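Priority: low. Protein: LysR family transcriptional regulator. Input follows.
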Amino acid sequence: MVSKSLITSLNNIKGLDLNLLLTFEAVYQHRSVTKAAGLLNISPPAISQSLTKLREFFGDPLFVREGKGLVVTTTAESLHALLSEHFHALLDNLNNFSDKNIKSRFVIHATPYAALRILPEIFSMIEKSGINCEIVHLSSDPNFDNAEDILIYRKADIIFDTTSHYGFSTITEPYTVEKAVAICRKDHPRLKDKLTHESMKTEKSTFLNIKSNGLQQTQSDIENYFGERTFSFSSSSLHVNASIVERSDSVSFIPEWFARKFSDIYNFKILECDFSPQPVNIFMTYNKASLRNNNFVGLLNIIKECKSSFK
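Result:
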């Protein structure tokens, strides 16, 4: 609902840059243009220009030079009294909102596999470190999600993705590498322990349907080696593809870590292969501005410490 009183107030004051009130308070507190400039990290001429605009808006000199300092006028005293209650409270609230030590809830965007692979180890380290924060995982889909928009609009603090996202406001770092292996069900009627170029010609495959640059490069390597494969099933889920392999004669290429962790659960086996496709890189991306948050830096340090666990 639109507040009519707020709209009226905005219309009445739209000729005033509210940033000028910061300048006013800085000069009022220090009675010095130079000291106010130091406080606000701007030049003394910029302070003087702001005072000129304030004087024009209020129709009063506000500050009068006397000796080496400034003396406030009655209008300036009244303005300060008006601001001291509400404006200072607003500044305090804004400072608390953006305080480097306040934020304790961090959102991580990652594909289901990247989250399964990476987040448990990171969360375990967070618990051991004693950092008081909440981690929220939002599942991302490379087919639909735009990682750059996610970061720009602050929908997430960190993204783990198989695509690197380089920009002026973001930092992207390689985090881990995932090697792909071939699998089939343990009692496959034709494949024993090895998958060859010749044997692949008579087998059907599952396809991991994710449009990611890194993953597509690996899929292209597999296709170039084995030739055009016959796909019997496709899914964007590794778990679904593994379940299909368990109940069919299909062959699938999946991350080695996933294969070793879930081979007994899904009753499949890892096949030796005389071909090694290009590994898939997983990158970590975050906003540079987040480095101003102490809790985020603490979380980031833990994530980087965990990096060696994924080699």
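The first helix runs from residue 4 to 13. The chain has a mean pLDDT of 84.
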